[in-house]
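Workshop exercise sheet. Pairs work together: one partner reads the sequence aloud, the other fills in the structure field after running the prediction. Swap roles for the next sheet.
Pair: D.N. / O.F.
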Amino acid sequence: MSIFRLAHLSDLHLPPPKGALGWRDLLSKRALSRIAWRRKSREHQPQVLAALVADLKAYGPDHVAVTGDLTNFAAPAEFAAARRWLEALGPAADVTVSPGNHDALVGVPRPERFTPWTPWLGDAGQASFPQVRVRGPVALFNLCSAVPTAPHLATGRLGDEQLERLDALLADPAWRDLFRVVLIHHPPVEGAVSRRKALEDQDGLRAVLARRGANLVLHGHAHAAQVAAVAGPDGTMIPVLGVPSASAAGRGRHPAARWHAIEIAHGPDGGVEVRMAARGLDPRDGHAVELGRWVLAQAGRAPAHRP
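Structure field:
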């Protein structure tokens, strides 16, 4: 049996470098975010993220998916610091980043803003979305739902052009025999987050998935472990998995940090089984432990919990 091991983590909220914000930032949405960071900095701890990443590296995944919010203010100094963090995580060919709303806090909603992370966005050599990365038996479809929003909003949007390109890519027979994983920051399901944080065109994304299909959707943003499903073609269901923040100390209203180890196993008969283990830190000693294990009995069906 061939097994592809995919690690999923999200919402890193790396600590901003000293001096990352200037006086001009007091005139933008960054001023509100800086005030909020005074509270959130107690929740998002770099040592928690470091311990989680050490556990992830010990697992030895074939690929790592990071679904957004590496930064807090989308400041240039933060993008540079996040790039250094990504370089330490592993080779760019083995890591895919889908940007989050904090990574596009202010400015113009263009993918070029993510140019410092180009090697981690895909194999096209440019900051564009969607991109497809083929790794062994898996095709990763990387989307970007990160757009600047008004104060007190954290909504996302893909836009018609990105949805149309995704529709064409998912329809391409080149990926038909591969396990297709869609990466996005905002959850594409109703009720996963409040309306002020929701994906504005999630109906459009679900329509594409219902028409073209996929095998798995991974997201972040909710800072919670979430298991859901959306409709695929011909009555199938596509699992949708969300992971909590990878740096959360668990002191606030959100759960403590964890990452998901996803094993995509191809059997000799052509069948596919997907297993997912949640791993986090034991609050008693800070060591990483397995928190739970789930099995997708068959690709395309909703997940069932296994004690």
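Discussion prompt: The chain has one domain: 2-305. What would you look at next?
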